[in-house]
Amino acid sequence: MATKDRLLRLTILQRKNPKLSDAEFQKHWTEHHAPIASGWLARNGIIGYTQYHTPPETRQLAAGLAEYAGAKVADFDAHVEFMVRSVDDLIKATQDPEYPEKMQPDEGYMFEHGAMQLTVGWVETYVQDGKVVNVANGKSTFAS
């Protein structure tokens, strides 16, 4: 069942450190960063943390769709999604002593400095597990 909670989805789009190969980046992000980030984030009240791995060969899978739609495939190597009650929750998490000690140096190793972009918004789910949800009598149940 989909939730109607107005959690915020904050997405950070990142490029890998150019000194790392695609394989080195993906391996480090999964095997090293995810385990340390998960505990730190959960301990600091973050509701969700998801990594989207988007190396060039995977991005290429959408090239035909992008061309058909008149769009461009975003050229980021990584998308990080946080589910939070407030953007302040993530800011507060960076004030945890573990952030400058462990997280910040690891982010500096993995990501290209200054190439990050960010989006934030709420989620309204209408198809989940292959089924229509949050639509009743032809109307969104999110409508006021």
Automatic annotation (TrEMBL):
Family membership: Belongs to the tpcK family.
Highest rank taxon of the organism: Eukaryota
Residue ranges of domain EthD in the record: 18-110
Protein name, per record: EthD domain-containing protein
GO molecular function: oxidoreductase activity
